[in-house]
Design brief:
Elements: H1 39-48, H2 79-98, H3 114-118, H4 126-135, H5 149-159, E1 173-174, E2 190-195, E3 199-201, E4 208-215, E5 222-230, E6 237-245, E7 253-256, E8 264-270, E9 277-278, E10 283-286, E11 291-298, E12 307-309, E13 312-318, E14 324-330, E15 336-337, E16 341-350, E17 355-363, E18 368-376, E19 382-389, E20 399-405, E21 410-419, E22 425-426, E23 437-443, E24 450-451, E25 481-483, E26 500-510, E27 520-536, E28 539-552, E29 557-572, E30 578-585, E31 591-598, E32 601-610, E33 613-623
Parallel strand pairs: 10-14, 14-24
Antiparallel strand pairs: 1-19, 2-13, 3-12, 4-7, 4-11, 5-9, 5-10, 5-13, 6-8, 6-11, 14-23, 15-22, 16-21, 17-20, 17-23, 18-19, 18-21, 25-27, 26-27, 26-33, 27-28, 28-29, 29-30, 30-31, 31-32, 32-33
């Protein structure tokens, strides 16, 4: 049987560092490009350059001081991978400063070809110096956007011939230790391997997420006591995640599956340097008929040939004895992160019974920067569960959270994101969406997998500010309108002449039936809206803020605010009241639209995303001119 970690291939990344700079990065003599720039040049870099990888001076006097130590002195990086991938990456990421003619004080060009980068002894080559700064994240300079994870990984793996991976824990600060398992598993456990079956990782494979789906072959309930990584070809292995397929929607077998997966539950995650997870007693129940998914992130940045991988996870299980643990995920269920902004959302979960917390895996996507969770005790006292800054999507271990919560306690979970795109980022399971949960192992298990209770706020207002697409004479203080969500489908809108008018938002709502397996509570909540609209022939401008307070029967509740400022042309379709809104101003895309003019009222639908579902949002305006 295969060892859970193949020692012939796997290196302990917590001990070995291929690219280790032999001098203090922040030493006074360690000059970077920014140290020799004028104030004007620094301003130019911040304004015009998305990313430059700055390298210290390459003078003979600094030759020894700048060396790095490679793990393999015989490594010759792949020329094919350089020509097909690496050259373009270096040009795009570094070319503005380190082009054919270096600019902004950069000491050397990085774009003069393969031979220029790899000439010399391993450890002193130009590519080694670049990768050293990329791997330990001392470059790009502070204040410039980081290099994308897949680009970092490709550069490091290409230059080291697959021997090393980027240390994504650099910059991560967390006040809880990683939840580690004993080196040896308890005796007498039954072993079950869920692994990739000789999966072919192509020579040009980069940033591939592959899912391997298994029906768990148990004939009776068992307790999983321990989960171990099975690491086969470590040179191409980026990370491994184990999930439970809650609805059995994924077919048994193998397929590409980038991003978060819907209707799944996180059970375990491994990245280089990680280890096993073991319950101190008892374990996690697995029953006949359950379906598990092993998601593996591959990156063959080294361009290795003939790779067939058998990585995955090992489950060690026994009879159901001792404490039973379950997965429980508190956190805010819905939010919208405005474009080009730093934003935080908080969810509160009211505990109904005594729970022993064992370990938790904070989870966000790539826009995350910080994760904070605390318990507000029934007596009003507060206790930190976990505080984490310097978030990296590639580093999501379980942390040890040994504490107990009880009836009346509130678990408050806050995530902070930085959205550096031009579009609003909303809740969802896709890579470009965001999430905020702490996947926690608790005993006993809870009935609900997720928890975000609605706590009635004395503030029933919505903050409205005139948006960028509104005309200059827009009213900065339009009146507030309220309305409950609609539980049934909406009658067809009949169209009509938009005319040239100014409109005031009376109310907004959302046409919501069952969303997936989520049903609204008997008292479903409230929409609070402020806004206005302008029409001129076929031109439509909407400027509004809508706060959604929504309650569900599943115990997940939402309190979020959306801002819409958009303008464009309404192109009529074949049916009355239906067409396309071609957007010329705003953060939304052109989309289908329905409208109706009835007396002094204008009804308009605009799509809204709610927990990965697109639903028709209804805006009802009253004419004010």
């Amino acid at each position: 049987m295969r060892d859970s970690v193949r020692q012939r291939k796997q290196r302990d990344c917590s001990i070995v560092r291929t690219y280790r700079v032999r001098y203090p990065v922040n030493a006074q003599s360690d000059l970077t490009v920014l140290d020799v720039l004028s104030a004007q040049e620094v301003h130019m870099i911040k304004r015009f350059i998305y990313l430059c990888i700055a390298i210290a001076s390459f003078s003979c006097a600094e030759e020894e001081r700048g060396k790095v130590t490679p793990a393999d002195q015989s490594c010759v990086p792949s020329r094919l991978m350089y020509d097909s991938v690496v050259a373009d990456s270096i040009e795009q990421q570094c070319g503005t400063c380190h082009g054919e003619t270096p600019q902004f004080g950069a000491p050397q060009s990085l774009t003069r070809g393969y031979e220029d980068l790899v000439s010399g002894d391993p450890g002193g080559r130009l590519i080694d110096r670049i990768v050293a700064r990329v791997a330990n994240k001392t470059m790009p300079p502070v204040g410039t956007p980081p290099i994308a994870h897949n680009v970092q990984d490709t550069l490091v793996e290409w230059a080291s011939c697959g021997a090393e991976h980027t240390d994504h824990s650099v910059g991560l600060v967390v006040d809880r230790p990683v939840f580690t398992a004993p080196e040896q598993a308890p005796s007498g456990l039954t072993t079950l391997d869920l692994t990739a079956p000789d999966f072919v990782v192509g020579e040009k494979t980069l940033d591939l997420y592959q899912c391997f789906v298994f029906d768990v072959p148990v004939e009776e309930d068992r307790f999983i006591r321990r989960i171990e990584p099975v690491v086969d070809v470590s040179e191409v292995l980026h990370h491994v995640v184990l999930l439970r397929d809650l609805k059995k929607k994924f077919e048994v077998g193998s397929k590409a599956c980038k991003g978060a997966l819907s209707n799944t539950q996180y059970l375990y995650a491994w990245a280089p340097g990680g280890g096993a997870l073991q319950f101190p007693e008892g374990g996690l129940r697995v029953s006949p008929g359950e379906r598990y998914i092993v998601q593996i992130h591959y990156n063959n940045g080294a361009g290795l040939k003939g790779v067939k991988d058998n990585s995955g996870v090992r489950l060690l299980h026994a009879k159901p004895e001792g404490k039973e643990f379950g997965m429980f995920a508190p956190g805010p269920a819905a939010f919208a992160i405005p474009a080009n902004s730093t934003f935080a959302a908080t969810g509160t979960c009211k505990v109904s019974k005594k729970l022993e917390l064992l370990a938790g895996m904070p989870h966000m996507h790539s826009f995350g920067t910080a994760f904070n969770q605390r318990v507000i005790r029934a007596d009003g006292s507060k206790e930190t569960v976990i505080d984490l800054t310097g978030w990296s999507f590639e580093m999501q271990p379980f942390y040890h959270l040994p504490m107990t919560v009880g009836p009346g306690d509130l678990i408050e979970t806050t995530c902070t994101w930085h959205n550096n795109t031009e579009k609003t980022v909303t809740t969802g399971e896709k890579t470009g969406d965001e999430m905020c949960f702490n996947f926690m192992y608790t005993s006993p298990p809870t009935k609900k997998a997720y928890c975000n209770d609605f706590i009635i706020s004395p503030n029933t207002d919505v903050d409205y500010k005139v948006g960028k697409c509104a005309p200059e004479d827009a009213d900065p203080t339009p009146p507030k309108g309220t309305h409950p969500p609609e539980l049934e489908s909406m009658d067809p809108l009949t169209g009509g002449d938009l005319g040239k008018h100014s409109w005031e938002l009376s109310y907004s709502t959302l046409v919501i039936g069952p969303v997936g397996n989520v049903f609204l509570a008997d008292d479903p909540g409230l929409f609070i809206a402020k806004g206005q609209a302008w029409t001129d022939g076929d031109q439509l401008t909407i400027d509004a803020a809508v706060r959604l307070i929504l309650k569900t029967k599943q115990g997940v509740s939402i309190d979020s605010t959306d801002f819409l400022s958009a303008s464009g042309t309404v192109v009529k379709g074949d049916k009355e009241g239906q067409g396309e809104w071609k957007i010329s101003c705003g953060d939304i895309k052109s989309q289908p639209i329905r409208w109706q003019v009835s007396g002094d009222e204008l009804w308009v639908t605009v799509d809204k995303t709610l927990v990965s579902y697109t639903l028709p949002g209804l805006y009802v305006f009253k004419r004010r001119d």
